[in-house]
Amino acid sequence: MTSTAAGRGAEAAPDADAVVLCHDLRKRYGDLEAVAGVSFTVRRGEVFGLLGPNGAGKTTTIEILEGIRDADGGDLAVLGLDPRRQARQIKARIGVQLQTSSLYPYLTVSELIELFGRFFPRHLPLAELLDALDLNEKRDAQTRTLSGGQQQRLSVALALVNDPELVFLDEPTTGLDPAARRALWDVVRDLRRRGRSVLLTTHYMEEAEALCDRLAIMDHGRILDLGTADELVSRRFHERAVHFEHVAALDDARLAAFAGVDRVAHEGDEVLLYTSDVPATIGAVLAATDALGVQPAGLAVRQASLEDVFLDLTGRALRD
Length: 320
Fold this sequence. Notes:
4-stranded antiparallel β-sheet, 12 helices, 2 domains, Rossmann fold, globular, alpha/beta, 6-stranded mixed β-sheet, about 25% strand, Alpha-Beta Plaits, about 35% helix
C-alpha cells in the first residue's frame, strides 16, 4: 500500500483515542533503511497486529516505540508522550515482552516476577500472574530449568507485571503447544476487555485473524496495507481459491488460461488459482490432469483469506 493509504489508516482514530501515533517513521543502519516511512495508529482497547516476514522492520519499529532505539525521522507518540524525550515515563506505563533465557537464571519464577514487580510503583499480585500464564507448577523452579514454551509464558508474565496500559508482544506464542497458545490468546483478549491495548507481532496467521482488531502488513521497511482482516481481503479478492499440489507439466501460463482463472499463485508446493467461476476452473483442472494421466492431489476450494493477502503483497508466506 502507498504511504497515502497507510496515512489513511493512521488518521482513522482521533488523537484522544490513540495510545500509539506513528507518522513517517524512519530508521537507517548504514545503507539499509530498516524503517522507511511507516505510519499507523493503535487505539485504546485495541489489539493491533504488525505482520511481516523476517527482516521486514517490525522489531526495529517496536523498539523505537518502546524507547530502546532512536528514530532518524518521523513523528511518534506513545501514551501521549515522546519516546525520544520521555522514555522513563513511558516505560512505567507499558509492558514489554523480554527474552528470559539470560535473565537471572538462578532465580525462581516467583522470585523473578516479584523482583520485576518492585521496579514499579504498582504491580499485579504474583498469584494472579502465575494463574493467568499457567505457571503455578513452576513457581519454585529456577528460570534456567524452564522449557522454551515456559520461558515464553514467563516473558509475558513479566510484561504484565505492572498492569500496563499498552503491551508490546513480539511473537508471544512461538514455541507453545496449541493448548498453551490458545490460553495465551485468552490473556490477550482479557487485556482488551479491560481496556488495555496490545501491539503484537506473530508468525501465525490464524493468531492474527483470531486476535487482531486491525493489522498492518509490513515488508522492506514499509507498510503495504492496513485495516481489519475483512478489509484487507475484500480490497484484493472477490474470488475463491482453487488449490492443489503442483503438477510439473502445468506451468503458470497454462494454468492462467483455465476457464474462470483471474490469477495464479504458489504457496510452497501448492498451486492457488483465484477464480470467479469455480465449477469451470475445477473442470479445466480435472481435464488437464486427466490428459496427463495424473491426479490433482489435495484439490479443494476455499474463500480468499488473510494468508492470500500476505502472499499477494509480499510474494511469500508469513513464516518464510
